[in-house]
Amino acid sequence: MVTYNKEQIKNLQELDKKHYLHPTSSLKQHQENGPKRIFTEGKGIYLTDVNGDQYIDALASLWNVNIGHGRKELGEAASQQMGKLAYSSSFNNLSHETVIQLSEKLASLTPGDLNVFFFTSGGSESNDTAFKLVRHYWKMKGQPEKKKIIGLERAYHGITMGATSATGIQQFQNMTTSLAPDFLHAAAHKTNCEWGDKNDSDYSRSIRGIIENEGPETIAAVIVEPIQGAGGVIIPPDGYLEAVRDLCDQYGILMIADEVICGFGRTGRMFGVDNWNVVPDIMCMAKGITSGYIPLGAVAITERLRDNLAEVSDDVLFHGFTYSGHPTSCAVALKNIEIIEKENLAAHASKMEMELIKGFKYLTEKHSSVTKSRAKGLLGAFELFEDREQGIPFGPEKMAAQKLVEECLSQKLIVRSVTFGGTNIIALSPPLIITKEEIEKMIMIFSDAIQTVEKSLR
Ligand code: PLP
């Protein structure tokens, strides 16, 4: 392990403060305090910082380090590919062996006939690609007015202009004065409304209600995360995704699943939609596709959709990133998927779900503020309430969830709070290689941290 002396650490902190604009971070706090931690190494579920302190990375960094940190095989795959063919473009129907192999591999994993892949550098680009593809599709089919896209409230789809516009979390939209047009938002998970229950007072806010109000001839697609991640790990009730699939079929609307977090074993199945046997028309992926070792995103479309597009459009598909199908990213993805399959990480995540639930039960019994815990595979959350019996939340001024995240960090556990809309949600998604013993260790740290925070809040 590389060690840093006090002067080196101070220097890094000052340079960070001076030159680094951090993503999704408080600028004021950064300018006052500098970076919170500076990490240098990762191994398994752990990250080590410049002081040599080891932290449990209970969010797999950004829900993405599925195979865990420090897997040398991925570095070797990247090095071999770079030595052989570091880069070549896929524009104008040029190709290379590694992207062909990755496309074939993904086709063997995705459900239904989602067998055709477009590559990007991440989740936002994948979603923006899907939005442009569906609009292009309807335009080519002679229905250019079919262009609106319906997303869900509390959904997170990324930060490019299209993805920000599809995102249903106000704070991300407030960042810009104008959004992309023709994005609408529906209330999440109103299963009965999606089946057509007009007596529900939320009907007009449901996807079905919005489609009927706007006119199906104006709606291009619906986008849903199988499980909402950044919105607070919100698991839909059984039957919801099936209802959305049926609704889309009924009205001739394309269904996009945003699998950026759920994909590649996170929820105990290879893809989130596999939990409900739903096959979308388009599936957006990123994060777990390389376990974060190198940037890569992908958009799966059905063979049907590709054939339709090829039939109606003999023009060039004017959409491509310089790094679409980057050879090194593809080589790393192939090795990452090989590890996920060889080590049965989706099945392991499903098994560990029980341990997570057991841990949440312990926390709920021991701490009066803990409630509403849930998990699917290794994607889980619990909430903090001032009075859980009466359903009284902690007021935002108490910053309960933020305080718990800070206390966990000081106890060397990295988790995330979700506080949009007055919630106090603690989200976790550890690397899929986490063991029962490591989950128990994580729960014990949570328990200590919750006790400290509860004391400070009462
Ligand atoms: N979609 C979902 C569900 C996500 O959680 C994220 C990122 O957290 C994105 C899209 C955006 O991905 P990226 O940050 O790679 O652009």
TrEMBL record:
- CDD domains, A to Z: OAT_like
Q: Which UniProt keywords apply?
A: Aminotransferase, Pyridoxal phosphate, Transferase
Name any one Pfam family assigned in the record: Aminotran_3
**Annotated Gene Ontology MF terms?**
pyridoxal phosphate binding; transaminase activity
| Record-linked SUPFAM superfamilies | PLP-dependent transferases
PROSITE patterns tied to this protein: AA_TRANSFER_CLASS_3 (PS00600)
Q: Which family does it belong to?
A: Belongs to the class-III pyridoxal-phosphate-dependent aminotransferase family.
Q: Please report the name of this protein according to its UniProt entry.
A: Putrescine aminotransferase
Q: Which organism is it from?
A: Cytobacillus oceanisediminis
What lineage does the source organism belong to? Bacteria, Bacillati, Bacillota, Bacilli, Bacillales
